[in-house]
Automatic annotation (TrEMBL):
Taxonomic lineage of the native organism: Eukaryota, Metazoa, Spiralia, Lophotrochozoa, Platyhelminthes
Record-linked Gene3D superfamilies: Superoxide dismutase, copper/zinc binding domain
Domain Superoxide dismutase copper/zinc binding: 51-186
Database matches in InterPro entries: SOD-like_Cu/Zn_dom_sf, SOD_Cu/Zn_/chaperone, SOD_Cu_Zn_dom
The protein's name in its UniProt record: Superoxide dismutase [Cu-Zn]
GO terms under biological process: superoxide metabolic process
GO MF entry, a single one: copper ion binding
Length: 196
C-alpha cells in the first residue's frame, strides 16, 4: 500500500473512492422510495350498503400511509381490518381467501408484530355514526410481491382481531376476527389522485 503512495498512484485512487462514496450515498438515499420498494399507489372503493374509499400511499421512507373512511358499519365497534390473498369479493367477500401472506409459514399477528401475515392491519374503531376512519402508518413486509396490495381485497370483519394472542389455532390464522362484513378490491390509483 505504501508503495502505491510513493509512486504517485494515490492521485488515481482518491477520485475512485470519492465515486464509490457518492454512489453508495445515493443508493442509501433512494432505498426508501416507492420505486425501490416497488409499491404502487392504490385505492379501495366500497359500495352499497357501505360507502367510502381507502387510499394506499407509498412514502419515500419505505412505509405506506393508509387513509380514508368507510361508512355504513355498526356504530361504536372495534373491528378487524385485513388485506386478503385474492381479488375476488364474490360470495359476500368469502372468496377473498385468507389474509395476504407470501411467506408460507407466517402466523397471524398485529401490524407491529415482526413475523406476521403481510395483510394483518389490526383493528379500527367505528364512531357513533358507523364510520371507520383509516389513518395508518404501515410498514410493509420486506419484499412484498403485491406492490402495495394492488389487486388484493381490503376487508373489514364483524369482530375485533385478537392479533394472534388468542392461544388457539384460529387466532394464529385469522385473529378470531369473524366473518368479512365489508370488502373492496384494491386497484391502482390515478396519478392525479390528491391523496397520492
Amino acid at each position: 500500500m505504501f508503495g502505491i503512495m510513493r509512486d504517485g498512484s494515490l492521485r488515481f485512487m482518491v477520485p475512485f473512492f470519492l465515486f464509490l462514496y457518492s454512489y453508495s450515498n445515493a443508493c442509501t438515499k433512494n432505498s426508501g422510495s416507492s420505486k425501490a420498494t416497488g409499491s404502487i399507489p392504490g385505492i379501495a372503493t366500497f359500495v352499497a350498503p357501505y360507502d367510502g374509499q381507502v387510499h394506499f400511499v407509498p412514502l419515500p421512507n419505505g412505509r405506506m400511509q393508509i387513509n380514508g373512511s368507510v361508512s355504513g358499519l355498526p356504530p361504536n365497534e372495534t373491528l378487524g381490518v385485513h388485506v386478503h390473498e385474492t381479488g375476488d369479493i364474490s360470495n359476500h367477500c368469502l372468496n377473498a381467501g385468507a389474509h395476504w401472506s407470501f411467506v408460507k409459514r407466517a402466523a397471524h399477528g398485529g401490524p407491529k408484530t415482526a413475523y406476521r401475515h403481510a395483510g394483518d392491519l389490526g383493528n379500527l374503531q367505528t364512531d357513533s355514526d358507523g364510520v371507520m376512519q383509516f389513518n395508518l402508518d404501515y410498514l410493509p413486509v420486506y419484499n412484498d410481491p403485491s406492490h402495495g396490495f394492488i389487486g388484493l381485497v381490503l376487508a373489514i370483519t364483524d369482530h375485533e382481531d385478537d392479533l394472534g394472542l388468542g392461544r388457539n389455532e384460529e387466532s394464529l390464522k385469522s385473529g378470531n376476527a369473524g366473518m368479512p362484513l365489508a370488502c373492496a378490491v384494491i386497484g391502482r390509483a390515478k396519478a392525479e389522485d390528491k391523496n397520492i
